[in-house]
Each structure stands twice: as C-alpha cells, then as structure tokens.
Amino acid sequence: MRQKSGDKDKRIAAAAIRVFARDGFHGAKITRIAREAGVATGSVYLYFKNKESILHHLFDALWKELHAAFDEVAHRRDLTAHEKVEEIIDRIFDQFGRDPSLALLFVNEQHQLLRQESGRFMQYYVDFLQLGERVVREGMRSGEFRSDIDARMFTNLVFGAARQLLHQWARAPRQFPLPTVRRQIKSVFLHGLLASR
Amino acid sequence: MRQKSGDKDKRIAAAAIRVFARDGFHGAKITRIAREAGVATGSVYLYFKNKESILHHLFDALWKELHAAFDEVAHRRDLTAHEKVEEIIDRIFDQFGRDPSLALLFVNEQHQLLRQESGRFMQYYVDFLQLGERVVREGMRSGEFRSDIDARMFTNLVFGAARQLLHQWARAPRQFPLPTVRRQIKSVFLHGLLASR
DNA sequence: ACTGGGACTGAATCACAATTCAGTTATAAG
DNA sequence: CTTATAACTGAATTGTGATTCAGTCCCAGT
Q1: Where in chain A is the domain with CATH 1.10.10.60?
Q2: Residue A154 contacts B where some CB pair is shorter than 8 Å
Q3: What is the chain B residue with the closest CA to A176?
C-alpha cells in the first residue's frame, strides 16, 4: 500500500499561513491553499478535518511555543523582574520576527478564536497575561517597579503595543525594523516618554 | 406617495453595531440585523447597498468623529505636548467608552477595511498616526520629551495599547474600569514602569 | 375618496466556496 | 509479477446566507 508523502501536512500548513495572512481567514479559499501547497483540493481534507481546524492547528503550535518560551523566562532565577520584562518582549519578537505572514495571522485572526467555544485558546491567552502580571508584581515587591501601576493593565499595555508594532512591521518591514522596535518598546515602557526629571 | 419612516437607517446601523460586535462581520447575518432593527430583511437594502457598505458606513462615521476630535486637540495652542498626549488618549476613550459594542467593532473589524481597496480607511488611520507623530515631535523640540524616542513608534505603541485595553474593557467592563484604564495608560507611557531612580 | 408611486415585505433566487466522493494512482506485501 | 489497500485527485454536490423582486401597503397630491 501507498505511503503518505510525508511533508504534505507541513506544506499545507505553510501555505495556509500565507493565504490566511494575505486574504484573512474568511477570504481564504481552500482551493487556493491547496494550489499554493501543491496538492489537490481534496487532499487538504486528508490532513485536516476542515478549514477551521487548519487555523486551530496553526494557533495551537504558535501558542505552545509562546507559552513554553514565557514559562521558561518567568521561572528563571538569574534575572531581575526588569530583565524578565525585557526578555519576554524579546521572546514575542523572536517568535514572529522570522515570518511576517505568521505575525499577520496572529495579529488579525486571534479574535476569531477567542470568540470560539472550547476556550482552549482563551486559556493560553489568559495564562500569558497572568504570567506577565506575576512578573510585574515580583518587580513591585522587590522595589524595582513603581507600585502604583496595575500589573494586569501593564501586561495588557505591553501585549497590545507589541501586537500593533508587529502588525506594522509585517506590513512594511523596512519602515519598522525589528531591532529598533524592540529597543523602543522596552525603553518607553520602562522609562516613559518624559524627559528625565 | 409614502414617506420613508425616518429612523430606519439609524435603527439598522445601531443593530448592525451590536450584531457585528457579537458575531463578527462574517458571522453576522443580514437577516439577524434586520430582525434586531425591527425591519424586514429586504428593507436593509433600501438603506444600504450591501453588507459591506453597512460596515463602511459605521467606520466612516467613527473615523470622522475621531479625526475631528484629534485634529482639534493637535491644533490647540493652550496645551503643552504632554497635555496633548493625555488629551488624545482621553478622546479615544471618550469615543468608545459610551458603547462596548462600538469598541469591539472597531477593535475587531478594522483590519477588514485596511485590507480593502479604496484606501479611504487607510487614509484616516495614517492621518491619525501622523498627527500623533507631530505632537510627539513637538514635545521633543520643546524639551518636554526624550529625544531618543521614535515618534512614529511611540504613537503606534499608544494606539496599540489603547486598542488592547478597549478590547478588554468591552469584554469585561468591571474588570477594566475606564477611569482606571485612562489613568494607567497615561502614567505608564509618560513615566514608565521603573521606580524613579 | 381616489390614485400613482415610493416604502416596505419576506419568500425565492442565486452565487459562492466548503466539503465530499467516485475514480485513479502508487507502492508494500506476498 | 499481482494484488490489495491507502494516498491522492478534482469535478460534482451541497449548505449557507447575501441579494433580489413580485407583490402589498401607505399616503401626498388631486
């Protein structure tokens, strides 16, 4: 009997990232994904239950990696809270910086999943925010951070800001070079906009 | 001959905000919008060319108001750059704070429009960002702001952060009371997270 | 008090694209 | 070399929901 060719699932997933990023989940046609992956339309359904499950597969992999990265940082003993905040920001950009399509996908289609039933993706999201919150609290206890900041809101600020700049970078990488973006985010969030008093 | 009943267009638009916000643009059914507006399905097409044009109508109104508000703030002579930044943040929240559905709509469906042809919405967006940029530069010239910050990126940071907190607020107003949110955003962006040296 | 024409209705039409499946092809096992 | 079975194909099927339109309903003008 015949063997599955081995990398079709990878090729389909990779094509889906590009097509979802370009056309949006709803604008993306399965036939287009299949064509870009170099397989027949029907073959997509040998590897994925349906269109939505492709999206799930992609986000699942994405969040798993993010989660692992964050978790590792949060538990490091050798970093101050300040350094952890910087490291977490770096990890976000490490994750998406390799592929603008991946960044666009994440930035534009995440809300589809939050609307969804299962709550699986909601969980990743909540976990991430809680983890950020924990790091900020840690910094407050140690006196590194101002204690009049709401840790949950701060984490959301960083997440939202990173999301926005990732989006801009993905649309025009030259206008928003990633090294500069990282530097600016850290600098603004840690020191603020005002000239030092 | 008969007169148009007068407020059907308003009722349809208002219903559309709720339905788009709840179900997303693609998940929203015209029949549902009509039902919530208390009109027949077909009537929607007497007031709007098609589903997409409803979205356009809503965003057009939204951006026009935002644009007017920002423009006014940017040209005020009686405010320092610092105060302008705070005022712009306030205007964003004034605009959306009255209606969580409006906030969700803006936050979740904006990207549909940026993908679109005409560039009409892109223009609003770009204008807003340039305006923010201008205010930041102004503050740098006057010495109020640090001059090692990239003005364009800073504006994006604020926009992205505001978007995220608006989203969280719309999903759970109690968890993210708007007055606190405003205060935190301003405080973090102006002074940063670190305890003062 | 009639009537012409626009407002309004909602069931029927229609377009589109996700999904299926009957047929074809490749290859592992004997 | 055969054959059985699973991989693979892409045209046909199908479900869904946006849009249309044939008919009603109202009322401004006469």
Answers
A1: 1-48
A2: yes
A3: B153
Q: Rounded distance, CA B73 to CA B79, Å?
A: 8
Check residue A53 and give left, alpha or beta (phi > 0: left; psi -120 to 50: alpha). Answer: alpha
Quickly give A23 CA vs C19 C1' distance in Å.
Answer: 20
A1 CA from C29 C1′ (Å)? 8
- CATH number of the structural domain A1-48: 1.10.10.60
CATH number of the B51-191 domain: 1.10.357.10
Task: Enumerate the β-bridge partners of residue B145.
Answer: A194
- In tens digits, what is the pLDDT along chain A, a chain of 197 residues? 677 777 999 999 999 999 999 999 999 999 999 999 999 999 999 999 999 999 999 999 999 999 999 999 999 999 999 999 999 999 999 999 999 999 999 999 999 999 886 788 999 999 999 999 999 999 999 999 999 999 999 999 999 999 999 999 999 999 999 999 999 999 999 999 888 75
Chain D bases near protein CB atoms (7 A cut-off): 4-12, 17-22, 25-28
pTM: 0.94
In the block, which residue shows the tokens 């906030």? B103
Q: Which residues of B touch A162 (CB under 8 A)?
A: 160
Q: Which chain C positions come under 7 Å from a protein C-beta?
A: 4-12, 17-22, 25-29
- In chain B, residues under CATH classification 1.10.357.10 are 51-191
Distance from CA of A6 to the nearest CA of B (A): 35
B119 DSSP 8-state letter: -
CB contact under 8 A, A180 and B153: yes
The domain over range A54-191 is classified in CATH as 1.10.357.10: yes
Angstrom distances, CA of residue B75 to CA of B78, B81, B88, B90, B147: 9, 11, 12, 16, 22
